[in-house]
Design brief:
Shape: globular
Helix content: 25-40%
Number of strands: 15
Distance between the termini: 30 Å
Radius of gyration: 17 Å
Strand order of the largest sheet: 8-7-9-14-15
Strand content: 25-35%
Order of helices and strands: HHEEEEEHHEEEEEEEEEE
Number of helices: 4
Largest sheet: 5 strands, antiparallel
Length: about 260
């Protein structure tokens, strides 16, 4: 069932969104060659506590997961597309492509966003991958306005991926968000324009394109039961915002 949110609810979600944005920025600032992923986890936990926000991910266990998620944030490196666990034994190296996904709850409402960056020196391929994935997010947000359909949002993501020769994480995408981190409706990263749910004021969704540099959509899950990696071992990027659909158009709730 799709729930439509009020301006009062968006005000609370905006606070959750600020906590998410602050946490992502703090983690990015701390990410340097030689830093273990566990240190990024500690930075995220400390920042959310300072913002008086509760981590949405810690202990979260959807139906498909074998165990509750053990971290405050997801940290996915290189070929890991999403849900990477911030293990202490994994250390960042120069040139790593790192995606950080963060959810936070304030006053019973959630915000969810992700960012991808390169640690140290970026090669040209990484730069193109990140630029295209972020452009897909921007295009999809622009399509999230009353009167459009969900397929317009989905197609905005898929169009950028295919134009640049990138794969799209198969079977995964964005979602509704509010008093639960994951709500209806699903927000696919592939779809046909003019099809699907009619968008109207009050709908609040997380839009999250995830691109694979190698061009294939296929993935596999690591033995930890969480980390999803590209089947061909190519690098991946992930950008996400929580977006409210207002009468005046889309409003991003996870900006600083």
């Amino acid at each position: 069932m799709v729930t439509y949110r009020s301006p009062r609810e968006w005000k609370i979600m905006r606070e959750a969104g600020r906590a998410v944005a602050r946490t992502l920025a703090a983690v990015r600032d701390a990410a340097e060659p030689g830093v273990p992923l566990a240190e990024l986890e500690a930075v995220a936990a400390r920042t959310l506590k300072e913002m008086e926000a509760r981590p949405s991910f810690l202990g979260y266990r959807p139906d498909w997961a074998p165990t509750p998620y053990p971290g405050t944030v997801c940290v996915s490196v290189n070929e890991v597309v999403v849900h990477g666990i911030p293990h202490a034994h994994i250390t960042l190296e120069d040139g790593d492509v790192v995606s950080v996904d963060c959810g936070a709850e304030v006053g019973g409402y959630h915000g969810d966003a992700a960012v991808t960056f390169v640690v140290g020196n970026a090669d040209a391929g990484a730069g193109r991958l990140l630029a295209a994935t972020e452009q897909a997010l921007n295009d999809a947000v622009a399509a999230a306005r009353p009167g459009n359909r969900m397929g317009d949002v989905s197609h905005a993501v898929d169009r950028v991926a295919r134009a640049n020769g990138y794969g799209v994480l198969d079977g995964w995408g964005g979602h509704g968000i509010g008093t639960a981190m994951h709500e209806d409706p699903p927000v696919p990263n592939r779809g046909a324009p003019g099809r699907g749910l009619r968008l109207r004021e009050g709908l609040t969704i997380a839009i999250e394109p995830m691109f694979h540099e190698g061009g294939r959509d296929a993935t596999r899950v690591l033995d930890d039961g969480w980390s999803i990696v590209t089947a061909d071992g190519s690098r991946a990027a992930h950008f996400e915002h929580t977006v409210a659909i207002t009468a005046d158009g889309p409003r991003v709730l996870t900006l600083p």
